[in-house]
Specification:
Largest sheet: 5 strands, parallel
Distance between the termini: 19 Å
Radius of gyration: 15 Å
Order of helices and strands: EHEHEHHEHE
Number of domains: 1
Shape: globular
Helix content: 40-55%
Structural class: alpha/beta
Length: about 150
C-alpha cells in the first residue's frame, strides 16, 4: 500500500463532531480513504446520518466500505474521563482496556496496514480533536506494533 507521500503505509483518523455527513464524506474522499473503521463502542448518534446503519449506507454510496469495530471503542466506564478532560488518565485506562480485550484485533489490523493488504483505512469516532480521543491511543498502539505506519489526522 502506498503511503500518504512518503512511501509508507498510512492510517487516517477522523472525528465527525464538527462535520455534517456530506463534509465527512468529502474529507474521506479527498484523502482517498477506501474503508472506515467506526471505533465507537456504541455506534449511535443524535446527529442525523451518523448512526451505524445510515452512515454505512452513505459511505457505501461513495464506494467507501464501513465496518463497525465496537471492540476498539471506549467502554462506558472510561468515557467520563475523556468527557471531563482527564485525557491522560483516560488514555492510560483505554490502552489497558484495548490491550486486554482486543490485542489480537490490533495485531491483525497493524499487519494488514503494514503489509498493504488493507484498503486505505480511516478510524472514525465523534471527537473532533484526535489528541483528546481514544483513536489517538489506537493509532499509537498500531504504530508500536508496526512502526512503518504513518498516521494522518483529517
Amino acid at each position: 500500500m502506498d503511503g500518504y507521500g512518503k512511501g509508507m503505509p498510512t492510517l487516517w483518523t477522523i472525528g465527525y463532531e464538527r462535520l455534517p455527513p456530506d463534509a465527512l464524506v468529502a474529507e474521506l474522499e479527498a484523502a482517498g480513504v477506501e474503508r472506515v473503521l467506526d471505533v465507537r463502542f456504541r455506534p449511535q448518534s443524535r446527529r442525523p446520518g451518523m448512526s451505524m446503519t445510515r452512515l454505512g449506507q452513505l459511505l457505501g454510496e461513495h464506494r467507501i466500505a464501513y465496518e463497525n469495530r465496537r471492540t476498539l471503542g471506549t467502554p462506558p466506564e472510561i468515557r467520563p474521563l475523556y468527557r471531563t478532560g482527564a485525557t491522560r488518565k483516560a488514555a492510560t485506562a483505554f490502552l489497558a482496556y484495548v490491550e486486554r480485550e482486543a490485542a489480537a484485533e490490533l495485531d491483525t489490523l497493524a499487519d494488514e496496514l503494514a503489509d498493504g493488504s488493507a484498503p486505505r483505512t480511516a478510524l472514525l469516532c465523534l471527537e473532533a480533536e484526535p489528541d483528546h480521543c481514544h483513536r489517538r491511543v489506537l493509532a499509537e498502539a498500531l504504530v508500536r506494533r508496526r512502526g512503518e505506519i504513518e498516521v494522518v489526522d483529517l
